[in-house]
UniProtKB/TrEMBL annotation:
The keyword Glycosyltransferase does not apply. Transmembrane segments: none annotated. Residues 221-287 form the GHMP kinase C-terminal domain. This is 4-diphosphocytidyl-2-C-methyl-D-erythritol kinase. Belongs to the GHMP kinase family. IspE subfamily. The gene is ispE. It is an enzyme of class 2 (transferase). The lineage of its organism: Bacteria, Bacillati, Actinomycetota, Actinomycetes, Bifidobacteriales. Catalyzes the phosphorylation of the position 2 hydroxy group of 4-diphosphocytidyl-2C-methyl-D-erythritol. HAMAP family: IspE.
Length: 307
């Protein structure tokens, strides 16, 4: 069906294509415990996740039976992602496609399109967001009607942040981050987060260079958490990427309500009260070149499914 022809597909008819806009994540607090051998060396985490409204769009479209999958990546900042060759099979969205196809007994005859806007390897969970987007979109495309809990079980086999990315908003993550307790927006805990400034207008300070998550955990194992940070990885991330520390100091001095390294970095997230404070932070970051790029967003953000 060409997209310029208005259609009125009756519900119950399986769609030919489904798109999901899926937000980035950040960690409002991130407490890192001991590594566990049975989790492949992953550390125990206790974190408050927050969806941040810079969105990748994941589109899944039916293909001829037996034709296999294809992947099409678009975006200005694709980092180390490749859309052809052997790397394609390592794309988190492709892994999610294979995992769900296997779990529900379907062939992965699907074309996957990803329009990337979330910076890659930036501590913003872009790969996890794309995997979650693929699961949400395929759940519709294949009319599976699986509840989120069942999708989360598959997501947890693929990555720590993926179960959260299926729902966004605010949530607590434990285990290695994959055990999710939702924090509904009308709960006292959500109100407390909003009162602390973790809501509304958000500025992402992004970088052309990336930080590898394992490298940041290795630095954390050497250096520890430092003191005073709600994000235990911030000290290690700043040691490896000092400009993130500069950006945090400048954002706070310019009036941001909260500013911190996002996850394992190097991106910095600053929550500001209004447009005026945003302009002040923008001026500081632009003058000092403490960040390479500024992305404006709203938080907390949730995925949007479009049939
Ligand atoms: P992590 O989830 O490990 O903390 P991150 O949030 O810092 O990572 P991502 O954008 O998820 O960063 O990228 C981490 C790595 O995952 C990249 O180096 C990239 O090669 C790989 N990757 C695989 N698929 C994707 C995808 N769809 N989008 C982004 N990165 C992907």
């Amino acid at each position: 069906v060409p997209s310029n022809i208005p259609t009125d597909v009756p519900s119950g008819v399986p769609p030919l294509t489904v798109s999901v806009d899926v937000p980035a994540k950040t960690n409002l607090t991130l407490h890192v415990g001991a590594p566990h051998a049975e989790w492949g060396g992953r550390h125990e985490l206790d974190t408050i996740y927050c969806g941040v409204g810079v969105y990748d769009t994941v589109t899944v479209t039916r293909k001829e039976p037996g034709s296999g999958f294809s992947l099409d990546l678009a975006g200005e900042h694709l980092g180390d992602l490749a859309s052809t060759g052997s790397d394609m099979r390592r794309n988190h969205a492709v892994l999610a496609l294979f995992a769900l196809a296997e779990a529900c007994g379907r062939e992965p005859d699907v074309s996957l399109g990803i329009e990337k806007r979330i910076p890659v390897a930036a501590g913003l969970g872009g790969g996890s967001a794309d995997a979650a987007g693929a699961l949400l979109a395929l759940n519709e495309l294949w009319s599976l009607h699986w509840p989120i809990g069942r999708l989360r079980e598959i997501a947890a086999t693929l990555g720590a942040d993926m179960p959260f990315c299926l729902t966004g908003g605010y949530a607590r993550g434990t285990g290695f981050g994959e055990q999710i307790d939702d924090i509904p927006s009308d709960s006292p805990a959500a109100r407390q987060l909003r009162e602390r400034g973790f809501a509304g207008l958000t500025m992402i300070g992004a970088y052309a260079d990336a930080l590898s998550t394992p490298a940041v955990y290795a630095a954390f194992d050497r250096l520890g958490a430092g003191d005073g940070d709600d994000n235990h990885l911030q000290h290690a991330a700043i040691a490896l990427h000092p400009r993130s520390g500069d950006a945090i100091r400048e954002a706070v001095a310019a009036g941001a309500r909260q500013a911190f390294v996002s996850g394992s970095g190097p991106s910095v997230v600053a929550f500001v009260a209004d447009e005026r404070a945003a302009a002040d932070v923008r001026r500081a970051w632009t003058a000092s070149r403490a960040v390479d790029r500024i992305i404006m967003a709203q938080a907390p953000a949730v995925p949007r499914i479009r049939r």
